[in-house]
Each structure stands twice: as structure tokens, then as C-alpha cells.
Amino acid sequence: MNEHIDTQEVWKDFSGQIRNYLLGKVKQRDDADDLLQEIFIKIHNNIATLHDEKKLATWIHQIVRNTLTDYYRKRKLETTELNEESAALNGASVPDDIYSQCVNGCLKVFIDRLPDKYKDPLVLSDINELKQKDIAKQMNLSYSGLKSRVQRGREMIKDMFVECACISDNGTTADKSCGICNTKKKSG
Question: Which run of H or of E encompasses 17?
């Protein structure tokens, strides 16, 4: 049992890293914040079961992974939300939030800029949510080859976002207008 580790210290040391990681894994900031809260409740409730302080980061990482797995499992069951997100990505509805509008606008442009070799597997996997093994068979690719293409497409989009004026290094809107999606931001 470990009574020496304080949850507040764990929060100070790890909350920023975990939140950034979650923002990269889930689409909505509110979901990331909810998951962060859920993760720290689990950490607080179970910190006494950690037997070796040296394994704290690994233990926390396992909690994060398990919480994300549960999140994705729940999301798969909520098909109406998935349909709404797909519709938003396809332009069927315009999000109210200017940040989301910019990100979705840029995302569509970035996906269109990908070479077909990366775009097609990425869209089938991440937008249409088909299983990667099925996509690999459909495209006559090995499963590992398809996974590599999806991952490379994601990396290329990430690189494009890094260059985008929509988002600053800390994940907030950066510029008053985006030259990619032409979204105008309100100055506040």
C-alpha cells in the first residue's frame, strides 16, 4: 500500500500531459475533460493499491488506456452521435463553436490534400469507421500495410494542423482568420 503519494501532487505532475494525450484521442474537448476527471477519480480511489512509487507513470498510463477503451466502447454503442459527427465532417451541419468550425473546415481540406494512397484508407477507417482488417481485404493490402497507411495519413494531417493558423501550441485558437478553411474568428 502506498500512503506517500498525494493525489494533488499527481494532478500537478500528470494532468497536463494526460489532457494533451486525451485531446489527441477524442474529438471533443468536453469529452477529454470528462475523461480526465474520471481518470483522476480512479487514481484517487485506487492510489493505495500502488505498491511501487517507481511504477506510478506506468500505472497511470494503464488507467488512461483502460478509461479510453471504455469510452470508445460506449461511443460505438451510441450510433446517433457517430452519425452526427460523420454528418458534420461531410458538411451536413455547421457547428456553432468557431473553434470546431475551423478545425472541421481544416480537417476536410487536409483530408482532401492527402494522396489517395493515404486518404482512402484513412477515410474508410476513421470517418466511415470500418474495421481495418476489412479495409485491408477490400483494398488488397496486408493488414500491417493498411495500418501503416492509416497511421501515415494521420501523421500527415497532424503535420498540416501544426502549420495551420487555427490552433496554437496549447490547443487554443491562434489567429483571427485561417487561410486554410477561411474561418473568421471574433476578436475577444
Answer: helix 7-25
Residue identified by cell 501544426 is 162
Provide CB contacts within 8 A for 19, sequence distance 6+.
Answer: 32, 33, 36
Distance CA 27, CA 50 (A): 31
Entry pTM: 0.43
Domain that holds residue 156: 96-163
Helix or strand holding residue 86 (H, E): helix 79-89
Q: How many domains does the chain have?
A: 2
Whichever domain contains 101, its CATH number is 1.10.10.10
Evaluate whether residue 144 is within a structural domain. Answer: yes
Residue type, position 61, single letter: H
Residues 90-99 pLDDT 10s: 554 444 455 5
DSSP state string for 20-85: HHHHHHSS-HHHHHHHHHHHHHHHHHHGGG---GGGHHHHHHHHHHHHHHHHHHHHHH-HHHHHHH
Residues 72 and 102 in one domain: no
